[in-house]
Amino acid sequence: MPSITKPKIPLLALEKNELGLTIRDYDGAMSTLCAGCGHDSITAAIVRSVFELSIPPHRLCKLSGIGCSSKTPTYFVSAAHGFNSVHGRMAAIASGANAANRDLHYIGVSGDGDSLSIGLGHLAHAIRRNVDMLYVIADNGVYGLTKGQFSASADLESTTKRGEPNTTPPIDPVVLALSLGATFVARAFSGDKRQLVPILKAGLTHRGFALVDVISPCVQFNDHEGSTKSYLYTREHELRATDFVPPAEEIVADVPSEGTVSVTMHSGSVITFTSLPEGYDPTDRASVIAYLDERAASHEIVTGLLYASDGTPDLHELNQTSETPLVSIPFERLCPGSAALEELQQRFT
Amino acid sequence: MGPTDVNDPSYYHRVVDCQWACPAHTNVPEYIRLIAQGRYDDAYLLNRESNVFPGILGRTCDRPCEPACRRARVDGEPVAICRLKRVTADLRGDISDRLPRSPSEKNGKRVACIGAGPASLAVANDLLPLGYSVTIFERHDAPGGLMRTNIPAFRLPSEVLDEECRAILDMGADIRYRSPVTSLRALLAEGYDAIFVGSGAPRGKELDLPGRHEETGETRIHIGIDWLESIAFGHTDSIGERVLIIGVGNTAMDCCRSSRRLGGKDIKVMARRPRGFFKASPWELEDAEEEGVEILVNHAPKRFVIEDGKLRGMEFDILEWDERAEHSRVVGNLVMPCDDVILAIGQENAFPWIERDLGLEFGEWELPIVDEVTMESTLPGVFFGGDSAWGPKNIIWAVAHAHQAAISIHNHCQGIPVTERLPDGMNLVSQKMGISQWSYSNDFNPANRQRMDHVDLARRFSRLNLEVELGFSAEQTAREVERCLNCDIQTVFRARLCIECDACIDVCPAECLTITEDGDEADLVSRLTARRLNPDQGLYVSEPLPQTRRVMVKDENICVHCGLCAERCPTAAWNMERFELRIPYAADHVPSGVS
């Protein structure tokens, strides 16, 4: 754990975004995770995404549960709002916060333990409710904070650092999300920011629940030869199934029209998928699940923005939440007092 | 681009911008760290090794290191390298027992040095400890050359100058004062094994305009460097109230400030060109203006106004320049009344004492033809250095020339070809002390550059030789040393250990790292994490990385050497290692065991 902090250097050369801020203005505290942890790369990718989208730091809300992954919100955008919830409850807290204030951007960072074991129920219902948030799972297949036991996403036949094989089948958060009706599902690798950053940016601009499962090697307990979530294994087995032109960017002329699929998002912007495998339709859940099943059988790790749709209503539409954030509503209206409560109760007698 | 050759000492040397820019390649970051540790003696001696005159240069150097300093690219102002050098001289103790000595048994070789300026003294400094007998011929009765005659005592106190000259002369140089060399032929006949010409550029340039030679009585038109010399030796102690200085180089600054001390009240420096195109260092301009000297731009001298054989003033054309100050046109004219005019428009070499039939060839501008590496003239055994070689430069260049000339003289005397010289060497030493512990102060310190305090204007002119700059206080020194970015603590990368986890890229506060596919330079540069702003700075490209065959690229431009890449590297592929440039001197060319 480093005792030195990342220095604030007034570099004359740093690029500025639309708000006149540099990427250093989106930094957080110095990471206390192990050197080489994939989570730090996810953190850096989030910093880059939020900077490039010119999101004002105070319009960002970052949430997490418990685990190595859940420490990371401390390490990005110090000036943002943050909530570090109890183990597995981040999705529930995020749902509440989102219902109370739709004006913020929500980023939840969780891990395979926090999301797929203790917090699986909350995750499932946040997906069902289509909470308007970016939900990042830093997925390393082990409980790093408790010294490397298998997590629920550990693959069959992978081993612990000591060599014991895993005999319990894994939960794949991507397939899980698809089966629950998620509207934006992606998988990426912490070691490839060229793919990860556009996905995070697209997820942040997506209306509804955006799930990004990021393979994030645990350099301490799961970067060994028996691992299926190591840097080397991921690089050797990664299959980039889809590529896309992010919504804000112009489509470059040399994208062939054949094999591309465009999805018009709620905001009117368009995500254009390019270079898709044959028979793959990123708007058709069944075709995506079939493709994932097929590739999993040959031990390939499919990455990319795998599924996107914008047909389903989000949390705000479903629950008719207040358009004005509750924090901006005068207290008297928000809490009309005991007389009003009395009157309300009278209606049910 | 293919992997960078980091076994070539010049790669890491270039990263140490100050050391690279210094003609004598002084190890700046190391001496700044020694100051930070309170090891002033060691810091002084480290300086002395390369630049020989730390106390003198700490006050008078032209500071090529400071414009190069990386700190200026980070927050706009370089580290006060020069003034920290002065700190080593101000705060050191008695180091006389650590200075080089000459052996009691000489090697039988005799070397003559012409002029006792910085170049000759530095040659003597390198050769005396090797057993050479060095004879120095000096036309004045004190050593120092232009350091004594041209630099006023209020900038360089004579005690400082005397002490550092004495350190060399006390090694046993045979110095002959009031002995100008009038014939090289005669000197050659004395049978020296080698001759070093360090006689400087002693002739001030003349301004031959109408009226220049019409004064009949007292001479009130002075040549700058001659006038400064006559002050230095006490022959001149006053000047008129209204003084015009022609020229705006560093000599002009010394002339105007000296005038201020000798009775000048209304002192004007007349410049032909606009500001920004002056030859004087910015800090010298500031110091002069602080003392009430006025600098007038766009005035071209036309004639001296002489009435009844007396100087009355000077006539100028007023110019208008284009943006780059290359072309001008005259837009007006005026006569500036004055009592004295001082010409400070440059100086040149003069070798009336070198007979032209000795085989020592002269080229353009009546300058001798001198080899840029060996400093040898076309007459074997005669070497040049300092201003006498290629015209006026500065003290630090003179020292740099002298080190090279000393190597050549040694080779020449030992019958070894002068071109047989040792290459630069280097050493890298890991600075890791433990987890999160580095042996240097790696945290970025946001302190501003410290300002040098000056003697009050009220008291400043009370004595001609009262030193103006007070030196850094302990507090200023402590703050300034922390501004140094330790550029010599190199980021050394071992590609075979890298697992491409991106930790270094993510943590780098200067965005100077990238992992990407190799390509030609333009292609690679287009894919860097941050734009490349300074193509003169190095671009490090690693061997292909084991997992993906991509390469690690580092733009050296704004790396602040904080060590976070090494700190966050899980496999120690990055490490912070102190780079030491091993510069060969004459002593290194002596086979060990033989003196």
Average pLDDT for all residues of chain B? 94
Computed structural class of chain A? alpha/beta
CATH class of one domain in chain B: Alpha Beta
What is the CATH topology classification name of one domain in chain B? FAD/NAD(P)-binding domain
What fold name stands as the CATH topology of chain A? Answer: Rossmann fold
CATH class of chain A: Alpha Beta
> How much of the residues of chain B is beta strand, in percent?
15-25%
Radius of gyration of chain B: 27 Å
Explain what the structure shows.
- The complex is a heterodimer of chains A (349) and B (595).
- Chain A is globular.
- Chain A has one domain (23-328): Rossmann fold.
- In chain A, α1 crosses α7 and α4 packs across α5.
- Chain A starts with 37 loop residues before the first helix and ends with a helix.
- Chain A has 349 residues and is an alpha/beta fold.
- The model of chain A has no long low-confidence stretch (mean pLDDT 91).
- In chain A, β1, α2 (68-71) and β2 form a beta-alpha-beta unit.
- In chain A, the strands form 3 sheets. In chain A, strands 2-1-3-4-8-7-13-9 form an 8-stranded mixed sheet, sandwiched between helices. Chain A has a 3-stranded antiparallel sheet with strand order 10-12-11, with helices on one face.
- Chain A has 12 helices and 13 strands.
- Chain A has helices at 38-52, 68-71, 90-100, 112-118, 120-129, 173-179, 193-205, 231-237, 285-297, 315-319, 331-334, 338-346; strands at residues 60-64, 81-84, 105-111, 133-139, 142-143, 149-150, 184-189, 209-215, 238-240, 243-245, 261-264, 270-274, 301-308.
- The mean pLDDT of chain B is 94.
- Chain B contains 22 helices and 23 strands.
- In chain B, a hairpin with a 2-residue loop joins β10 and β11.
- The longest helix of chain B is centred in the C-terminal third of the chain and has 20 residues, at 395-414.
- A 5-stranded parallel sheet of chain B has the order 3-2-1-4-15, with helices on one face. Chain B has a 5-stranded parallel sheet with strand order 6-13-7-8-9. Chain B has a 3-stranded antiparallel sheet with strand order 10-11-12, with no helix packed on it.
- Among the domains of chain B are: 99-202 and 349-414, FAD/NAD(P)-binding domain (3-Layer(bba) Sandwich); 205-347, FAD/NAD(P)-binding domain (3-Layer(bba) Sandwich), CATH 3.50.50.60.
- Chain B is globular and about 90 Å long.
- Chain B has 595 residues and is α/β, with parallel strands linked by helices.
- The A-B interface holds A 1-15, 23-24, 31, 34-38, 40-41, 43-44, 190-191, 193, 217, 219, 223, 231-232, 235 and B 73-76, 435-436, 442-444, 446, 499-503, 505-507, 509-511, 530-531, 533, 547-548, 557-558, 560, 562-564, 567-571.
